[in-house]
Amino acid sequence: MNVRRSAAALAALGVLAAAAPATAADSSPSASPKVTVPAGLYGRTDPTYDGVWRQSLALLAQRTVGYRPAASAVDWLTGQQCADGGFAAFRADTAKPCGGKTGAQPDTNSTAAAVQALQALGGHDTEIRKALVWLSSQQNKDGGWGYTPGSPSDTNSTGVVAGAFAGAGQDPAKLHLGSKNPYDLLAKWSLPCDGDAAGALPYQPDKKGKLTGNPDATAAAVLGALGKTLAAGAGKAPEQGYVCAGSGKPLTPAQVANNASAYLAGAMAGDPYLKSALPGAKDQPDYGNTADAVVALAADGWTRQAKKPYAWLEKNAAKWAEQSGPAAYAELVFAAHAMGDDPRHFGGTDLVRALNATGPAPKAGSAAHSEAKAAEDDSHTGVWWIVGVGLVAGVGIGFLLSGRKKKARS
């Protein structure tokens, strides 16, 4: 899902096509002589369009494999948070307020990724609560989220935000403006059985309302429908078979995920990878989207169908990650984790060492593993601020302090 950084860069240049956030290339913008990469940040390329995203994925990946990220790396991430709780892609000057005509603009994807990382780290309840409040205030009436405040909902943003709430112990089904929640939107956009993209989801409907299946958006929808984070582990095989959209009954979240998984499995049944949708990139593999699809399939219990594309990634993706940076390494770590594999032995590449080398060295060893377990336990038993549901525009946001034990779903 490195696509978000490239999509933002293209959008800033005014050349982003309607579906580009779900199909843009996984290459970072080249380093800019006007931007200095801050200390504490992972990666060496210009962070303008992906700083918070890549940092969040790097920290989440480290925690997933039992490392304690360096304090300077965590401090950099928390220092990026805007006063209203959102996170922008990058704030070069954190003393300058977010928003307005000149301040950095917060977005849902950066914010949701930061929530997932901070939740995994533990000890950041205040930052998480503020971020979730901001995300709640950005929900659209159709139940979903767009990339930026006020923009139309898209599947990728809705999926990653739903995963952030679920990872923090909150049920996405209870998040709604009016009568719609994110699961309603995903079910509405699930394609019926009468086409090649049966079960897939679009990035967004086109201007005429037509839905066109998009692989990366579909992978995001699987995790969102399951209520799982970017670092989801393997799930149990679905108990029910394929249920077509348009059958007269609303699809359940599990059915949305299962239908989407069937589409992803079929899309990689021949060539064991997803192909890039960029103009001029015909038949070229998309490494990042393939890694996302592996995580989605495994999270939904389709591990057998994910083995072939995962094996392809092991053989081919290391060079891509080396060129692309920390978020790419993190995506491959997530894929290995979801498949129950050791990311230290990924087709001859130690993904963990390679990721760690892109920024401040984390703490390894048994102490880090113990702390990771403790943080996981805390996430299951800690005090959670629950965002009020049934929000009405202009009324404000309420909180319910809950001490109930809420086991995270991923």
Automatic annotation (TrEMBL):
<keyword id="KW-1133">Transmembrane helix</keyword>
<keyword id="KW-0479">Metal-binding</keyword>
<keyword id="KW-0472">Membrane</keyword>
<feature type="domain" description="Squalene cyclase C-terminal">
    <location>
        <begin position="111"/>
        <end position="161"/>
    </location>
</feature>
<dbReference type="InterPro" id="IPR032696">
    <property type="entry name" value="SQ_cyclase_C"/>
</dbReference>
<keyword id="KW-0812">Transmembrane</keyword>
<dbReference type="GO" id="GO:0046872">
    <property type="term" value="F:metal ion binding"/>
</dbReference>
<keyword id="KW-0732">Signal</keyword>
<dbReference type="InterPro" id="IPR008930">
    <property type="entry name" value="Terpenoid_cyclase/PrenylTrfase"/>
</dbReference>
<feature type="transmembrane region" description="Helical">
    <location>
        <begin position="382"/>
        <end position="401"/>
    </location>
</feature>
<protein>
    <recommendedName>
        <fullName>Squalene cyclase C-terminal domain-containing protein</fullName>
    </recommendedName>
</protein>
<dbReference type="Pfam" id="PF13243">
    <property type="entry name" value="SQHop_cyclase_C"/>
</dbReference>
<feature type="signal peptide">
    <location>
        <begin position="1"/>
        <end position="24"/>
    </location>
</feature>
